[in-house]
Amino acid sequence: MPDKLLEVQGLETHFKTREGVIHAVNGVSFAMEEGETLGIVGESGCGKSVTMLSILRLIPVPPGKIVAGEALFLGDDLLKMTDDEIRHVRGSQISMIFQDPMTSFNPVLTIGLQVAEPLEIHQGMSRKQAMKRVVELLELVGIPNAKERVKDYPHQFSGGMRQRVMIAMALTCNPQILIADEPTTALDVTIQAQIIELVKRLRDELGMAIIWITHDLGIIAGLAKRVFVMYGGYFIEEAPVKELYRNPQHPYTIGLLGSLPRLDESQRRRLASIDGQPPVLFERSASCPFAPRCKSAIERCWKENPTLDTVAPDHRTACWVDINAGRPRQ
Fold this sequence. Notes:
Helix content: 25-40%
Largest sheet: 8 strands, mixed
Low-confidence stretches: none
Number of helices: 11
């Protein structure tokens, strides 16, 4: 039995466009254990979603292409599986909740039929057996009058309820990993909190591992065990969630945390912003991708891209400067 549930090494994904080749993911590596919750944080366009879509082989080919790396799930490389093999993994052993639940459903099919489909395909249930299980799943995620609502269409549900149905669909086959791609972005803060609490409860009850993708560090504060910060297609910092909040080591992470309002400060302060623009990814950067926006950049930052190095127990960062000491790292 493999030590890790999922182990990704050196993942690279490119997209060919008229303007050139976009280097969306550049050598990403990480691993997770059973029942663990990982957070992946970064601004829009940094490669978070593409990383997960690459692992599940959901990248459209063309224009996309996975050019390097491996993704070992229970010891088997997802990137080398046949189309039939990866199809049996998707939705059955690894499920994904997408960002916009409205575009994730077929508008002309009832919710019941759509949630029942994975049960019929992956578990060989009859339509009657599957529909009975669908009602149980909808009740599990807090849909009232589930028995009647299975006959409704997606437009008859609110945004929060559609997201609950999406979670029910992801749980149909009791997956070992649930990937949540910014599932609360389009929802108001009250519904966001309800969805997060629902996912936490289901995680504890079902024992599944979770990868939560977000641009908001505040959301994963009470959800994740470990956090990866992503920028320009690279992981630039990794730490346990409490350590990351208490002792961020990368200027970009410090900038993200500085942009969050805090309730534990007695005096008001102006929220920080990160000057400049995200990098253009038409070529893989030879320098630190954050250097053009970094106030602490030194000459080496412009010449060499740092790798993730250990700076404290279970804490790694990709930066040539010791931010706390104000000097280059040894």
